[in-house]
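Weekly sync, protein design subgroup
Attendees: M.S., D.O., the rotation student, P.L. (late)

Item 1: inverse folding check
M.S. brought a backbone from last month's batch and wanted to see whether the design step gives back something sensible before we order anything. D.O. pointed out we never logged the input encoding, so this time it goes straight into the notes. Structure tokens as presented (479 positions):
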């Protein structure tokens, strides 16, 4: 498949650091994506290779910036509905700040048969530093023939909304912040909580038939440990269950069919390594998504933000593409800073990547700071051996870390460089539905180099040191 462009270096687009390629969706012969922060929606006719670019000026006058940074896209009938946020026009100041006076949340419709874009809905609170909740998810409610919008990133008008597909009238259904949602059976599930103050607190279930809400918490962790800052990045549906991909793991289950929501620790590190600003798609009956190494970060280190700077800028390993087919969780790709969007087309997987993260509110630039590109793979990578990867992290104790998927690896091992005697507990579990718990094994460790052969384990393994070792290091080597 030939595309007009596969690589997008940074161009005009005032905002915080780098946006990305978001919303990848192939539908009715058209490949759509939004290039942020340039504020460009691209529509490519795959047969003719003709490309149309829309600059969001139906929202307001140019020059625009933004577009989408959460993969808010849905398809119904002949339409591609795409949402997010946009500055129209963008107001960038010389003191490296961007004003939010003209920041709008939006939903557009692209008619794949007529090749036309229509603005369905927009909203702004016209404030210099605050903004209305961005649209971070669009779900179709087929019973009521409406769109459901999730909104969490912002200062006002957060929650779950319904949007009329024809007239564009919005109605609030839930006033608690929600970044993501997914349909399961006849219910729309939404993760509830603020990603910037601790993460997902509970799951809300909207019965699309009678309109009632029910709310559920997470019962326990499969390895018996704590759940720390479960910021919600993506949600997916398979096996009549909801899968919520959060910092540190996966929350899966379905309380409406009598099964608790369980937390399965996965890539839980003392950093902001997370499945954030990426989508999840169904492939081969399973789920394909990514955990990202550097999606959001503080750029300038200074007094008062040392902890946040270290947590967001410590790179423990590559971003990984994951295939989930319970009980199996398998690494199928390794990438740089982050993966922003995933789609399948003509036997290929389209993976959008970015070399740079989002940054903070006082760290704006008049241009996007990353290189965005599209990488194509055969769909068959979900059946191949996983790539060799390594993770390196400090030897912290007193809570479980990790959740490393071993499926497909022949010689996985853990190498610990320690300054004192210690003890490590390794928990072995898998993504069984419902959860079957974990098995434990303890190893005595000596000062110096310790090697644990992980080929004796299977599925997922988390680990917990009895005592932190301030100068120690743990390397997980997967071959």
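Designed sequence read out in the meeting:
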């Amino acid at each position: 498949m030939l595309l007009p462009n596969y690589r997008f270096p940074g161009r005009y687009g005032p905002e915080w650091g780098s946006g990305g390629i978001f919303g990848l969706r192939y539908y009715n012969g058209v490949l759509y994506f939004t290039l942020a922060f340039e504020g460009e929606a691209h529509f490519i006719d795959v047969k003719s290779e003709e490309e149309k670019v829309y600059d969001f000026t139906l929202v307001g006058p140019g020059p625009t910036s933004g577009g989408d940074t959460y993969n808010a896209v849905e398809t119904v009938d002949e339409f591609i509905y795409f949402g997010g946020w946009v500055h129209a026009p963008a107001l960038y100041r010389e003191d490296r700040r961007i004003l939010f006076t003209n920041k709008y949340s939006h939903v557009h419709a692209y008619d794949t048969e007529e090749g036309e874009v229509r603005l369905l809905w927009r909203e702004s609170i016209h404030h210099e530093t605050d903004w209305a909740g961005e649209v971070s998810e669009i779900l179709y409610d087929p019973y009521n023939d409406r769109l459901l919008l999730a909104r969490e990133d912002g200062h006002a008008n957060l929650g779950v909304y319904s949007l009329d597909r024809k007239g564009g009238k919005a109605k609030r259904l839930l006033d608690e912040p929600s970044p993501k949602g997914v349909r399961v059976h006849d219910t729309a599930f939404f993760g509830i909580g603020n990603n910037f103050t601790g993460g997902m607190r509970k799951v809300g279930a909207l019965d699309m038939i009678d309109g009632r809400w029910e709310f559920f918490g997470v019962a326990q962790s499969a390895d018996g440990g704590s759940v720390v800052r479960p910021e919600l990045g993506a949600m997916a549906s398979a096996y009549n269950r909801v899968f919520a991909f959060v910092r540190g793991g996966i929350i899966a289950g379905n309380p409406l069919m009598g099964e608790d929501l369980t937390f399965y620790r996965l890539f839980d590190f003392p950093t902001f390594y997370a499945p954030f600003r990426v989508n999840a798609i169904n492939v081969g009956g399973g789920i394909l998504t990514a955990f990202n190494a550097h999606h959001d970060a503080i750029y300038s280190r200074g007094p008062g933000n040392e902890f946040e700077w270290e947590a967001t800028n410590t790179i423990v390993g590559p971003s990984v593409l994951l295939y989930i087919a319970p009980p199996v969780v398998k690494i199928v790709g390794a990438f740089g800073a982050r993966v922003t969007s995933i789609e399948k087309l003509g036997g290929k997987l389209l993976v959008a990547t970015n070399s740079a993260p989002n940054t903070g509110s006082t760290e704006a630039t008049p241009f996007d700071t990353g290189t965005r590109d599209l990488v194509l793979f055969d769909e068959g990578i979900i059946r191949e051996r996983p790539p060799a990867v390594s993770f390196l992290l400090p030897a912290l104790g007193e809570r479980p870390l990790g959740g490393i998927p071993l499926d497909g690896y022949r010689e996985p091992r853990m190498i610990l460089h320690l300054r004192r005697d210690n003890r490590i507990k390794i928990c072995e579990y898998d993504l069984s539905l419902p959860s079957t718990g974990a098995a434990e094994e303890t190893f005595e460790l000596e000062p110096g180099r310790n090697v644990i052969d992980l080929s004796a384990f299977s599925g997922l393994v988390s680990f917990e040191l009895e005592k932190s070792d301030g100068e120690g290091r743990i390397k997980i080597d997967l071959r």
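Discussion: The mean pLDDT is 96. The chain is about 0% helix and 50% strand.
Action: P.L. to compare against the previous round before Friday.
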